Here is the input.
Amino acid sequence: MAGEPRVDCLFCKIVANEVPATVVRETDTVVAFRDINPQAPTHVLVIPKAHYRDALDLAAGAPELAADVLRVAGEVAAQESVTDPGYRIVFNTGAGAGQTVFHVHAHILGGRGLEWPPG
Ligand code: AMP
Ligand code: ZN
Here is the structure.
């Protein structure tokens, strides 16, 4: 069922504290933790605690939770001091776009120059 934890999901295991992570911010509905393979000085993943496979699944199934993820993304950017000059929020969506973990997550990238368009 939408939002229910998945036993085979790495990020559900992080939510359940079965896999360790460096958590930088947490609310009742969202957790933010450092990416294990950082691509920028700041590289944090923001996830809903409930399981949705991608951004559209989340927006369709739980729009208030999608807003929570974006709000926490902004809070993480502020606490990491990357709000100025700016940072990137990325939702890789689908294997062809580089999504490898099918529990929706926002990548927060900052602290270096960010090229546009991304590769
Ligand atoms: P994506 O490729 O967009 O699905 O992003 C998945 C991200 O999860 C990658 O940037 C990985 O480096 C990151 N990742 C994988 N395993 C872990 C982990 N145990 N803790 C933190 N980040 C992870
Ligand atoms: Zn999950």
About this structure: The first helix runs from residue 10 to 15.
